[in-house]
Amino acid sequence: MTAPARETAAHALDISHVSKRFLVSGRKMLALSGVDLHVDEGEFVSIVGASGCGKSTLLRLILGLDTDYEGEVRIDGVRVKTPGLDRAIVFQDHRLLPWLNVRSNIAVALRHSPLGKAEKAERVDAQMRLVGLERFSDAYPAQLSGGMAQRVAIARALVNRPRFLLLDEPLGALDALTRLRLQNELLRIVRQEGATAILVTHDVDEAVYLGDRVVVMRPDPGRVATVLSVSGPQTHDRSSPGFIGLRDQVLALLGVAYNGAELSLAREADAREAAPA
Amino acid sequence: MSLGRTLALPARPGIGMSMSDRLRRFGAFAAKFAAKALAGLAVPVGLAAAWFFCARWNWIPEQILPSPDAVWQTLRETTADGSLQSATLVSLQRVLSGFAVGIVAGVGVGGALGASATLRGYIEPFFLAFNQIPHIAWMPVLMLLFGIGETLKIVLIAWAAFLPATLCTLQGVRDVPAGYRELGRVLMFDRRATFSTIILPCALPSIFTGLREGLANAWHALVAVELLASFEGLGYMMAYGRQLFQLELVMAAMAVIALIGLIFHTLLRWVELRLSRWHLEGAA
Ligand SMILES: Nc1ncnc2c1ncn2[C@@H]1O[C@H](COP(=O)(O)OP(=O)(O)OP(=O)(O)O)[C@@H](O)[C@H]1O
Ligand SMILES: [Mg+2]
Fold it and tell me: What is the pTM of this model?
């Protein structure tokens, strides 16, 4: 099931032998250790893993916000040195600017777009409709709920139609219904735009539902444990046996057992038992 | 300022309101304002009453605490002969020019210091040390440099306004959260966009704190320099009144200074609120 790492030809995004150290209270701490991941154009990759295993750190490296690491992050075979408008992110903390209203918060992403004024306004409107916030276009972030703020952040990331869409737990603060709706929206947009998406999530269901592949990471040091391919009839059908099997497999890899409808944190032994050999 | 500004919809709350709604809103606003004004007036009115009775029953000799009527009388006389207006005008001119020079330089220097850690490393300790020195203490040095003419006054007032403007701007710019700067990098903002969309709005409340402190400082410096080295202005009026044991003259000047200071303070506050509506609305 593990996707083979094809090192030879350049993919849309290549992450090769990436290690990242942080200095924490005077000690070098390995946040990422030998991470290898190769993503094809138009692929949707989900990343799951325990808190602190370096998921957000990895996204920062892909963005080019931090270039102080070992290994290489390459786009079309070219090393990433700086941020670029080809990559957009929904930060884990939504990071809206408190002094701009919803409309302006989305519009700032178009600041360097070659579009005309009217086109820009139209795009922003379309994004607001998409995330269902057109009635709040004049509201300020402090007047929004957590989930609404996250939707604005999603709209801001999408408005530029980026080639790579990085999503750091973008649906974390949403209610179940909005969440399901936006999952479908995300999928639709990503497909429609032909974007390549990398989604960090703690929701295993979501990871399997949206991802063409699911990357399972482990902490201490942060590394890729397994990459599972989601393909065939189970794709996007939450009740298919294939889907459920995959989901349980991911949960097991995370050290959580799933029995029937009851989700429980299991001991290491249980997790090993639940994992298929 | 930002692209967003130009895109902002004109839709504002209150556009589609009926007349009675508006009246009710205005009524509520007026009531709130009146309550606030009453609360704000309670202490001054109480003090004025105390003052009135002190003078009335001679608890404190008139040479030390003149009666309110005497002060009022003085205010009217000096207004009638034009001496109050001319003193006020002179002082106002000095404060405004000194304050303007001080805050323009202060916001500029503070912004540069806030943006550059290297620069801060070199200069910030000096500023913190300078800030401990009362600005009046510079007067002897400045007198030697500039004489006792108009330049001395402007320089001293400017310096007094410069320090808090610099330090507060520095703080505001330095403390812009790293996450916002990072967002600017991800959105490929150039320096201008970063400044106008992220740094300036984020630092604005702190900058205005500096401006208000600078304004208060400017008045302090004005009175000090006019008491010591001037033949006109409100400070001089006070020095003159003290020498002649006409304390009502001193108090009249104090009243004018307090009133003008309050007006300026309110103006600054109003400008700040206009510029940061999000703060207000967000808190509501
Ligand atoms: N700027 C930093 N300085 C020092 N250590 C850092 C820094 N950023 C991250 N780390 C460390 O790197 C590790 C990985 O952090 P990261 O934020 O990538 O985790 P994560 O997988 O996104 O976790 P979560 O699911 O909780 O968001 C953590 O142990 C964290 O302490
Ligand atoms: Mg994270």
Answer: 0.79
